[in-house]
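haha ok so turns out i had the wrong file open the whole time. this is the CORRECT one, sorry everyone. sequence first:
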Amino acid sequence: MKINEIIKRLNHKFPEYIQETYDNTGVQILFDDEILSGIYICLDADINTVKDAVKKKCNLIISHHPLIFRPVKKIISSESRSEIVIEMISTKISLYSMHTNFDRIMYKALSNHLGYEDCIPLIKAEDVDNIATGFGSFVVLENNKRFSEVLSSTRERLNLDYLIYSGDEDRLIRSIALINGSGGGSIEKIIGIHNPDCIITGDVGYHHVKYAIDSGAAVIDAGHYGTEYIFKKLLAESAGDVLYDEKVPIVISDVEKNPFKVYK
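then structure:
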């Protein structure tokens, strides 16, 4: 199978045209006539993941985050982003990113991973082929839970060393809004639509959490990495689905780590 063929199949399943206007989902670097030797799955194509892909003999990287968001105006070997591009071109590695198009269709991913199965899109988008899409999910629990229980189960299921949160640990939670990645910037919008008791997301800023406190919502910031590294398994499964009977190795990166640490 040529690399271009699997990209066409993925684009059919997760159409690039449904990405957000700011995004650059899709082909980043393409050697379209190359025969696919292996697929490497990661959140980010950085120098470590690219070199690991070469080591694992994978000539297609599928990343969640695009390496190239804006036009590249120059390539300088000593610049970090340029170094990645040069490494990929010199080793003939193709890069395909599935970002907000993937988020839209897999809106339940974070919710399901945390054990909340019955959910609706948090921020609704237009249906795609009669399939509901959106960003994040909204859950109403059958029974109230203490916020401390929600905190504990979130950290355990995401396998994180820490969580940042605001809110009274003893308060009761009935409704939860969940949105992966940089959902912190959407807190005001989320509260305006659903007025949830609790919001679980990443990249929460000071003014975001102040608004949530003033609105009576508890907030859990599990981090951008913490709420999205689970997408690697889903990306791998999606690539496997479109391979059909083709025997192509799929490698999920294990060299990526949460970039944040806590100094105690």
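The chain is about 35% helix and 25% strand.
again sry for the mixup
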